[in-house]
Amino acid sequence: MYVYLNECGIVCALGASRDEVRDNLFAGRAGVQPSTDCSPGRALPLGQVRAALSSVDHLPAAQRSRNNALALAALAQIRPAVDAAVARYGAHRVGVILGTSTSGIAETEKAVLHKAAHGTLDEAFHYGQQEMGSPAAMLAEQLGISGPAYVHSSACSSSAKAMASAARLIRMGLCDAVLTGGADSLCAFTVAGFSALESVSAERCNPMSANRHGINIGEGAALFLMTREPAAVALLGWGESSDGHHMSAPDPTGAGARLALTDALRRAGLAPADIDYINMHGTATPQNDAMESRVIAELFGCEVPVSSTKPLTGHTLGAAAAIEAALCWLALQPENSRGHLPPHLWDGQPDPALPALNLVPPGATLGRPLRHVASTSFAFGGSNAALVLGHAPLPPIAELLPHSGKMVLLDSVVSAGDDDLCAQVAIRPDSMFCDGAAVGSWVGIEYMAQAIAAHAGWLARRRGDAVKVGFLLGSRKYEAAVPAFAVGAVLHVHAHRALQGDNGLGAFECRIEVEGRTVATATVTVYQPDNVNEFLQGGTAV
């Protein structure tokens, strides 16, 4: 059974909305900026959330923290879907499993400073603000959820472990839906602690560089609605290990990291060659980068695209795994048809002691949709976690179409979502309408029509309904930039539902791509009555 990441809300240094984060991510615009907010008298690069957060004054005093404000900001982006899940499954069948490492420590700092200045703690302070379980308890109360609600706190692997726990709850049948992810907020305590370990860089962090000097601390939250309901992205696998090598340093052999990755691949049923991209833990500390790069090179080789997104977001500690999973989730969405990849920002000076990994430059694409990605998190005390996200296997194209035999023109479905489908077809000498050398570009409209029909069939199967017949009413402005599709070409046929009426009428924006280049476009109008037999017999479709 697969578990799916149906919705995602994210707030971090890259932005306070999903669209803003996506745009800044793929443009390679770093959110890490110098600040003295957590280190008075010493400017340090921080991954701060600069957008104004909603007030938490409506919460009980024990829950009024910036950490919880970040969690609420991520929740607001997906609140309707979460509320719908609670209504559908029942409050007792929905859980809240999160990761954090700071909780409300920032509020404790302010209270202590107030006491030093005035002799008493700030009246707004409540000891409960720093409880690790606060964000899960707060979200459960705000949503009226009575299922399992708890927090993982294992430093940088916290929210990866939370997502693995959420998946287990669903697969064991204890929950039908789980709100999962992580939240962490900046505070002077954290910055001072990592500074004492000589792990904080005075410049923007520089992972995999010969000039790397350590991390930049960040903050943020990412929340997912996880269910069994099929969606564009599934949590295919996860792996966890604990090597206990050292309180703060990773095992230089990478044994625990390797175990977490291989276990995630095994659970996903994938081989290393199936992974299109790896989001590295990539802290820019000398020891982590040395260990991680060797493990990746040994398991995956040096060709797979990899990047650390911490120069973009900062190291968000307990929320890091969830935020980085959210960046992967964005890259896996159907609209990322060219496979834009999260870039690796650094000074371009490789460390000759490290394997020469394929670090993603800004603007790089696969030229096709991503299928499967991995994300790693390696924490203090040897707490390791790896996640594999991707597209769950889709049904054969023939099971999605009301056609049969040779009338099925497409080979397979690459990805599918609520409003999008991407299908693939390879032009062969025996392809229908092929003259032995090519298929006329006019056939492209037929490929588009079948992609639209496959989308309707995919939605029907997801609902548990039978695949129904629909009608292609017409197309506007079918334009092809090539006269024919040559034998050997692999076409990606995209259908995006731009309009859907209650009466069964719909409109799709379609395009065909070859090697990432659009070669044909059209707007296609379709009609799918509820009762096709009555419609064909001249009656009124219900």
From TrEMBL:
SMART domains: PKS_KS. Residues 1-391 form the Ketosynthase family 3 (KS3) domain. GO terms for molecular function: 3-oxoacyl-[acyl-carrier-protein] synthase activity. Keywords: Transferase. The keyword Transferase applies. SUPFAM superfamilies: Thioesterase/thiol ester dehydrase-isomerase, Thiolase-like. GO terms for cellular component: cytosol. InterPro entries: ApeP-like_dehydratase, Beta-ketoacyl_synthase, HotDog_dom_sf, Ketoacyl_synth_C, Ketoacyl_synth_N, PKS_Beta-ketoAc_synthase_dom, Thiolase-like. GO terms for biological process: fatty acid biosynthetic process. PROSITE patterns: KS3_2. The keyword Transferase applies. Belongs to the thiolase-like superfamily. Beta-ketoacyl-ACP synthases family. PANTHER family: BETA-KETOACYL SYNTHASE, POLYKETIDE SYNTHASE-RELATED. This is 3-oxoacyl-[acyl-carrier-protein] synthase-1. It comes from Pseudoduganella flava.
